[in-house]
Amino acid sequence: MLTLQVIGRELQGEVVLLTLAHADGIDLPTFSAGAHIDLHLAEDLVRPYSLCGDPKDRQHYQLGILKENQSQGGSLAAHALNVGDRIQVSDPRNLFALEASAGHSLLIGGGIGITPMLAMAAELHAAGRSFSLHYCARSRDGAAFISLLEQAPYADRVQLHFSDSQRLNLTAVLTDVPANTHVYTCGPVRLMDAVTEQAAALGYRPEQVHQECFSAEVETGGAAFEVFAATSGITVQVLENQTIVEALAQAGLKVCVSCKQGICGSCLTDVLEGEPDHRDSYLTDEEKADGDQILLCCSRAKSARLVIDL
User: Fold this and answer.
1) Is 218 inside any structural domain?
2) Are residues 230 and 283 in the same domain?
3) How deeply is 125 buried, as exposed, middle or buried, from its count of CB atoms within 10 A (0-12, 13-18, 19+)?
4) How far is CA 84 from CA 5, 11, 38, in A?
5) What are the b/e assignments for 262-300, b being 16+ CB within 10 Å?
């Protein structure tokens, strides 16, 4: 865990750009493009945000955070941060890394989903690798990072798409690409679904298409079941409309959670016995089939009892 200080705050429409640094000016842990950090905004209020700065910069972390209309407290708390405030953050974790073997990287960011793409573009440009970046937003006036992209050293590889003027033509973008292209997309679910579906229709292999979700609709309800936390020696009944995290908390066993939507992996736990009912967007299909891990914030059990390593 790091304690960092807000040394920069810039509002771009509904997005706040926060710059964090160590108060003593020491180097921060390294990160690669696509990584995120967890902000500990208050007790029991931890949220993951993508790092959008240049990975070569060891002095600063930069985050672009959208003020969500349906915020559960995270984005509002982040927008309330001011220069001089101190905040605890996790070390960077990367669940959305670039593929080193890609012949070309096609970056497609929608809305606030542009944030990890900024770090990706900086890393790819510095390495002299082939890439192109497409940024989709409702309008130019409401879009963040426009000036940064237009002044970037890779500006000639950037194309802007606005709903009120020039929309993204996915078929054209996905067709006119070099061999062994890998696609990275982040943003609204409808955009990511469209990219995934169109790429599949055009013959892209599943491993060539990568996406990162900021939010996901997940159904956490279902039949009641029993969970035994083997290390702690605690047994709980998880009720129909209760998550494993909530049941354990009532028994005095607190689990570290961040997104609460099965996206970030912070509550990933080993399964020792029983069959999980996976509801998350974090584990791969192969990992889900193995049945030896579970996201406690949203997933349930197909068996009457689960034994977990907690």
Assistant:
1) no
2) yes
3) middle
4) 6, 16, 19
5) bbbbbbbbebeebebbbbbbbbeeeebeeeebbbbbbbb
State if pTM tops 0.70.
Answer: yes
Angstrom distance (rounded) from CA 108 to CA 120? 11
Listed residues 178, 212, 246: the one ending a domain? 212
pLDDT for 164-184, tens place per residue?
Answer: 878 899 999 999 899 999 999
Question: What is the per-residue pLDDT for 71?
Answer: 65
Domain of 136: which CATH number? Answer: 3.40.50.80
Rounded to an integer, what distance in angstroms lies between the CA atom of residue 117 and that of residue 55? 12
**One domain for residues 65 and 126:** no
Last residue of some domain: 71, 94, 117?
94
For 63, the domain range is 2-94
- Compute the distance between CA of residue 211 and CA of residue 157 in angstroms, rounded to an integer: 20
> Which residues are CB-neighbours of 134 under 8 A, at least 6 positions away?
106, 107, 108, 109, 158, 159, 161, 168, 173
Paired tokens of 295: 């996201």
- Side chain identity, residue 145: F
> Would you tell me how many other CB atoms lie within 10 Å of the CB of residue 261?
21
- Classify residue 51 by its DSSP letter: B
